[in-house]
Specification:
By secondary structure, the protein is of the alpha+beta class. It has one domain. Helices cover 49% and strands 17% of the residues. Strands 7-8-9-5-10 form a five-stranded mixed β-sheet. Strands 3-2-11-6 form a four-stranded antiparallel β-sheet, with helices on one face. It has a two-stranded antiparallel ribbon with strand order 1-4. Helix 2 runs parallel beside helix 7. The chain is globular and about 60 Å long.
Length: 312
Amino acid sequence: MDIIKNHHFVSQFYLRKWSKCGKKVLTTINNSNIRNMNIDKIASSNHLYRIDNINDETRAILLKELKKQRLPIMGDLLEQIINNMSIMNTLKSLYTQNNITKEESILKSNTVEGVYGLIEDLAAPLIEKLINNDIEDFDIDDYQNVFRYAIYQLTRTPKVKNITKEKVEPILENKNIDYKNYHIIMSLIMSEQMLLTFIEKLFKITIMENNTDLNFITNDNPIFNIYPIETNKVKFYLPISPRKALFFEEANIDLKSAIALKNQILNGKQYNKYFLDSVEITREEVLNLNNRMKENSDRFLFLYEEQDLVNT
């Protein structure tokens, strides 16, 4: 197994939806001139998800957070990752540098990147179905996998990392916890916690059909809450192609119906009517969402046509 060095914080399969050739995408960097850039080289950073050290203090705080709220399969996987990285850190002093370097580097660099790869592999064919309106057999597991991909995308970007760092790093320093290593795994835990919360609140996915003369644009921080944080309201927006976008928001149903739906889901019924909807969007709405996408970018904007930027 080779060491994976180039870690993407926006999925390559996602960016290809804005590519005409499948290899390059029209990009602006810090509002510079538009250029055609290789998808495998953009929205990525070397060893972005590399874990260098999980000491006892970091392990304890991560496991404590993980136990608060978790979905079974991913929760178990994250617990195993935390323990394995902690054990590796403990045993490191027992081995010489030459004996452990390669294996250690592979685990440190590939583990979390592999988690994101797994989530992307599950979501990619489902997002293709949403784009093609092939949703007749879309079930609750599909819904969770698309939602999981969206939430993990929300928490994995450098922009979110830097925002969180300002608030959390000073607290961690007093506890002998390195922020970088903490954040890499904590972002996974936080994603699972958010996903479970939104599922319990019966969030639905609305497919936005864009039949206007404008394309949706996207960026390097492609999912965001359209409501200001002070409103305590949540409605996530994520374009999935130049002609399709998704809203994730709480379903507007009464308590009795919500309880009935939850019971059906818990009993294994593959029921999709409450969590999938589709509406056609207006040109004005596309323009507004594109402007919001532009405002929410960190460094990169991605376009299907050069004129899409002119229209924002």
